[in-house]
Amino acid sequence: MNQSLWICRLRISVLPLVLGMCVCLSAPLARSATGAGVCSASPEARRLDFWVGNWTVTYPGMPGSANSQVQLSLDKCLITESWGGGNGHSGENFFAYSADDKKWHGLFADNEGRVHVFEGQVTAGAADFTGTSRGEDGRTVLNRIKVTRKTATECEQSWEKSNDNGATWTMVFQGEYARRP
Residue range 142-162: average pLDDT? Predict the structure, then answer.
């Protein structure tokens, strides 16, 4: 077989393979292009947007104030709070609505090694999350976080803990958020 004929047959047999790979590799790109905006178009996923912004945070017993920046990321699918609580204490909190299970989920982590995972619900102007953690004695502690819109420029976040599975609650944080200009 002459060399030109062999190259021609090789091209013909490789061409479908190359085209198939192109289609396979472009499929995820096509899906992401058509999926872009899914969260921004979902009324459920937009319910916590009232909290997006830059905030000054005060709470009882705190000298001075703390700061919080709440922003949208991942095509508006993730709400991230980056906060500095004073005295070198800081953290990141993440919230997202899952279209799969129709629930809101949250994750809190700080620079002191604490991590908390929450599930919750968000209605117009109010979010309510719960999740368990371990107390210093190893027992299960139930945590409840609430974020509530008071006005267009004010929100409140509270964190309560229960050592008796929700029969009684102790307030551990109640922050007043004032929107920065």
Answer: 97
Query: What φ, ψ does residue 8 adopt, rounded to 5°?
Result: -60, -45
How does pLDDT run across 29-45, given as a tens digit for each residue?
433 444 457 998 999 99
**Residue 135, C-beta contacts closer than 8 angstroms, at least 6 positions apart:** 141, 163
Query: What CA–CA distance (Å, rounded) separates 134 from 58?
Result: 27
pLDDT band at 1 (very low <50, low <70, confident <90, very high): low
Q: What is the CA radius of gyration of the chain?
A: 25
Mean predicted confidence (pLDDT) in 13-35: 40
Compute the mean pLDDT over every residue in the chain, rounded to the nearest whole number. Answer: 84
Question: How big is the CA angle at 141 (ends 138 and 142), to the nearest 5 degrees?
Answer: 160
- CA 8 to CA 23: how far, in whole Å? 23
CB atoms within 10 A of CB 128: 15
Cα(92)–Cα(69) distance, integer angstroms: 10
Distance CA 121, CA 109 (A): 20
